């Protein structure tokens, strides 16, 4: 009922353009922000699938080494997404106030932070790379393969973080096309180089698994270089400003804790699913990958909401920000309901695209209706997450995510193991996690307490 009341409130969703004229935030403008953002979000997962296909032809050992290495690289970089989301929140407010130089300055300081933290990560993880690979791999041969890949790929961490910061400030100033081009340029280069270096084509040395890491590193160097070049061309100071960096770290702290909550939940779910057998964990991972893909799609609207809400609040227009919040939530919810309907109709056909194993399909069909039911919930949750991130309300999101994890998801996950509820118990926990978050973000949005104006 709170959600219905929130969506029915009437306020025209208008923002002020550079001439001070009120302009409606229509589908064209929203899609103009969301579609390029979606392209940038999906480009890397698509490339990773290509990388897996190339390395997979080297054999099981190389593929296992890549998997272990990717877990390490992903774990040390995904916790720092505040460099993109936090920077967007701060940059968009300054942009809405008409202070483009201040918005870009947020990107400069986030980039300095990316370089310092990135180099620190390289130093620490290089020192402990051997034990880390051994602990995750569970076998000397796999650990040795993973270590060869990790030693090279780790040097890309500062470049990955620079690209995150670049995406953050550019989204804040509503420039979403250049980041897409920069990301695609880097990944396209990696895609060309990967088979050449892995297999030794066109006269290049045959580097096998290490060739994959080198190709990734060169692509990251290109993308990161473009983002640095974009900053250098802006008429702003490139000197570090400790006061801004400290403020970004405060916001980053809340987003890191929130990210760790997600990691704990999904790692626990995978661990429990594995204890129900190979078919259960395979089914769980299959549907979870579909869920992650849908999440990226809905996130593109959430990032558009973050940019527009931050800009409106920076301009001192709380009513406009609230109207945008309602409008984006409506569109995200309608889109999510459409996706849920398509997936409900694909109950039999879609899983067959990924597997024909009878046991895995049986468990996928158990999970499927939980999955479908979560999508409309996600439509509202992800949109309002974007709204609250745009408002800089990261502390609230941190707290509610912890409550949802500790009070909903994790108890049901471990109870499903104790009482042998199988994958149905795991996905009941996921549904509970989303419902707790839904109640929290809708209540927060309805209260209007998040709409604090100013920079």
UniProtKB/TrEMBL annotation:
It is a multi-pass membrane protein. The keyword Repeat does not apply. InterPro entries: DinF-like, MATE_fam. The keyword Transmembrane helix applies. The chain crosses the membrane at residues 30-50, 62-86, 107-129, 149-168, 180-202, 214-232, 255-278, 290-313, 334-354, 366-389, 401-419, 425-446. GO terms for cellular component: plasma membrane. It is found in: Membrane. GO terms for molecular function: antiporter activity; xenobiotic transmembrane transporter activity. Keywords: Membrane, Transmembrane, Transmembrane helix. Its main location: membrane. Belongs to the multi antimicrobial extrusion (MATE) (TC 2.A.66.1) family. PANTHER family: PROTEIN DETOXIFICATION 44, CHLOROPLASTIC, PROTEIN DETOXIFICATION 44, CHLOROPLASTIC-RELATED. NCBIfam families: matE. This is MATE family efflux transporter.
């Amino acid at each position: 009922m709170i959600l219905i009341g929130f969506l029915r409130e009437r306020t025209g969703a208008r923002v002020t353009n550079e001439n001070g004229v009120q302009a409606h935030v229509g589908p064209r403008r929203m899609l103009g922000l969301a579609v390029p953002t979606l392209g940038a979000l999906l480009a890397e997962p698509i490339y990773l699938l290509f990388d897996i296909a190339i390395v997979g032809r080297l054999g099981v050992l190389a593929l296992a080494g890549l998997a272990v290495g990717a877990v390490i690289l992903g774990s040390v970089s995904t916790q720092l997404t505040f460099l993109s989301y936090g920077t967007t929140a701060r940059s968009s407010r300054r942009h809405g106030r008409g202070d483009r130089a201040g918005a870009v300055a947020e990107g400069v300081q986030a980039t300095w932070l990316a370089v310092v933290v990135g180099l620190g990560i390289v130093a620490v993880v290089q020192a402990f790379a051997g034990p880390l690979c051994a602990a995750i791999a569970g076998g000397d041969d796999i650990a040795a393969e993973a270590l060869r890949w990790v030693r090279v790929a780790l040097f890309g961490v500062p470049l990955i973080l620079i690209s995150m910061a670049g995406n953050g400030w550019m989204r804040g100033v509503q420039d979403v096309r250049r980041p897409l081009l920069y990301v695609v340029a880097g990944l396209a280069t990696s895609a060309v180089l990967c088979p050449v270096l892995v297999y030794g084509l066109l006269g290049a040395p045959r580097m096998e698994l290490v060739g994959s890491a080198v190709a990734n590193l060169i692509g990251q160097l290109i993308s990161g270089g473009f983002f640095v070049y974009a900053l250098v061309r802006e008429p702003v100071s490139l000197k570090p400003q400790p006061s801004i960096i400290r403020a970004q770290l405060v916001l980053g702290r809340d987003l890191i804790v929130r990210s760790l909550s997600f990691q704990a939940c999904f790692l626990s779910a995978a661990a429990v699913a594995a204890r129900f057998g190979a078919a259960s964990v395979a089914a769980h991972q299959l549907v979870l990958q579909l869920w992650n893909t849908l999440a990226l799609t809905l996130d593109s609207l959430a990032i558009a909401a973050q940019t527009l809400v931050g800009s409106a609040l920076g301009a001192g227009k709380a009513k406009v920000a609230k109207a945008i919040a309602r409008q984006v939530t409506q569109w995200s919810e309608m889109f999510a309901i459409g996706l849920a309907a398509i997936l409900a109709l694909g109950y039999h056909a879609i899983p067959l695209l990924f597997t024909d194993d009878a046991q895995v399909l049986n468990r996928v069909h158990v999970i499927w209706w939980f999955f479908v039911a979560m999508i409309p919930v996600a439509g509202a949750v992800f949109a309002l997450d974007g709204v609250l991130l745009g408002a800089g309300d990261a502390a609230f999101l941190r707290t509610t995510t912890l409550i949802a994890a500790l009070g909903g998801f994790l108890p049901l996950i471990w109870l499903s193991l104790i009482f042998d509820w199988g994958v149905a118990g795991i996905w009941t926990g996921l549904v509970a996690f989303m419902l707790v978050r839904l109640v929290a973000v809708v209540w927060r949005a309805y209260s209007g307490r998040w709409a604090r104006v100013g920079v």
